[in-house]
Amino acid sequence: MDTFHVESKKGMNLLEALLRIQDEQDGTLSLRYSCRGAVCGSCAMRVNGEVVLACRTQVEDLMKKPALIEPLPYFPVIRDLIVDMSAFFEHYEKIEPYLHGKPVTPRHEYRMEEQKRKEIDPYVNCILCGICFGVCPAFERNSTFLGPAVLAKAFRFLIDPRDGRNGEILKMADSHEGVWGCNTVFQCVKACPKEVP
Predict the structure, then answer these.
(1) Cα 170 to the center of its chain, rounded Å
(2) Tell me, what DSSP letter sits at residue 61?
(3) With left for phi above 0 and alpha for psi between -120 and 50, is residue 74 left, alpha or beta?
(4) What was the pLDDT predicted at 26?
(5) Residue 35 per-residue DSSP state
(6) Is 47 helix (H, G, I), strand (E, B) or coil?
(7) Where are the beta strands (DSSP E) in the chain?
(8) Which of 15-29, 89-103, 104-118, 170-184 comes out lowest in average pLDDT?
């Protein structure tokens, strides 16, 4: 375990601190990041036992004691704070996460009622950061569990009146790999940076 000291400034987030460490103290420190604005989810990691986005975590909030920064749990570590998310995305691909049109060719565009769109909106907000996987105790006993992000996305398509495969999605969700694999602890909901239900 390596120890680093960073002089913080007001408003500095953990991602900025890690990049400063990379620039000034250890050029080999490896981490993922992209948008720096909580849009891409790339900088998810565990900090003092809590799984967070580094770009949304204020250094000032970590100043009371030394911060223990670790990679996302339940994922194989590639190097330092970089994890292999292949299994996460393989689970995600199982639901074919895109709209499947209905078999009948429409004469006009599919319209969606405002209320239905509002019902779908929270599930569209998932940024695929993997935080929900990192806090989900179901993975300790069942690595085939689809996981919270996948089930939320499946629900998004299930309630979308434009999608034509409701039976297929229900069959996948109604299994030990699906909703019956959930421990109903709901740490995923609590930890989600985008408040996906």
Answers:
(1) 22
(2) G
(3) left
(4) 96
(5) S
(6) strand
(7) 44-47, 50-53, 69-70, 77-79, 82-83
(8) 104-118
Domain boundaries, the chain: 14-83, 86-191
Q: Residue 106: is its pLDDT beyond 80?
A: no
Tokens 């979308």 -> residue:
160
Superfamily of domain 86-191: Alpha-helical ferredoxin (1.10.1060.10)
Residues in Cβ contact with 174 at an 8 Å cutoff, skipping those fewer than 6 apart: 180
| Superfamily (CATH H level) for 14-83 | Beta-grasp domain (3.10.20.30)
Which stretches does DSSP call E strand in 3-128? 44-47, 50-53, 69-70, 77-79, 82-83
pLDDT, tens digit, 9 for 90 and up, residues 17-76: 999 999 999 999 999 999 988 889 999 999 999 999 999 999 999 988 899 999 999 999
The rounded distance, in Å, linking the Cα atoms of 50 and 67 is 11
Per the CB < 8 A criterion, the answer to whether 40 and 127 are in contact is yes
Phi/psi for 76 (5° steps) reads -65, 135
The tokens 């390596």 sit on which residue? 2
Rounded to whole angstroms, how far apart are CA atoms 74 and 147?
12
Tell me 55's DSSP state. Answer: G
